[in-house]
Amino acid sequence: MTYFQRKWFSEYSERFLCNTSDYEQINQLVNQRLGGLHSAKILLASVDFDEIEKLQSQNEWEKSGQILGEVAKSLEKAGAEFFLICTNTMHKVADQVQEAVTIPMLHIADATIKELNQNKITKVGLLGTKYTMQQDFYKQRILASNIEVLVPESEDIEKINQVIFNELVLGEITPESKQEYQIIIEKLIAAGAQGIILGCTEIGLLIQQDDVTIPIFDKTVIHSKAAVDYALNDSEQLN
After folding, report:
1. Does 86 participate in catalysis according to the annotation?
2. Global pTM?
3. Which of 9, 40, 189, 200 has its CA 20 to 30 A from that of 226?
4. CB of 96 within 8 A of CB of 69?
5. Do 97 and 125 belong together in one domain?
């Protein structure tokens, strides 16, 4: 059994697929770094997505933040030394959740910004839930780093969101939806996007690098790598 300086880190996730994707990615990365039979020391908390989705639809974000804040408190009490919210959308309440605990949070946008800068991306397309694409809580953080963010047209935002919630969260992958996403991505490329952020875990189930002619930045891969870097002391800061 290996103990890191930051020996515990925790995840909050709202969907089962998100749990498994982030969990698997983090453990694979730890094993690649340490070899042998090593895996990550993780405290994992998952809440009922139906409850969260209803609050999102009703614009009850403060209540969502309270739920996540209580979850974060329980993880801190259990020994977590830093935490992740493993969903872009719920970063809308990231500040509220952070205020509930004393341990630091690894913000998903900060990890993404680091990757974009390393790849010299100055204009990026963003795919995600309608909340992530339409509201400023995620985009503004990237814009503040002098990276322009392009989002699809309103009609395409609805298509993307419907596929996420009606198909991908249920594990349904169809060629028709893949083609729709590829067409939307091509529009963003035509508008000048140098890369595409897959800002929702489930989109990575549908779109891979071979499906796109410019670099993709998968939130699951990026966030997981940043968490492992920090846990293994390869990165001394969370942003």
Report:
1. no
2. 0.83
3. 189
4. yes
5. no
